[in-house]
Amino acid sequence: MFDILRLLIIFFIAIFLFFSIIMEFKKPQKSVFWFSIEVLSLLGIIMLFKDFLSKI
User: Which UniProt keywords apply (predicted)?
Assistant: First the structure.
């Protein structure tokens, strides 16, 4: 049960970061700092997701 909850939290954070990156591209004034933080966070979430799937 804990693994499913962890997977759902990781999935929702990844969706939020993905749409946040898309919204950053739509802004006329882009913040490189926040964009890089979001991209690095999304890569970290993807690595966590990959690690989770490899344990199954």
Answer: Membrane, Transmembrane, Transmembrane helix
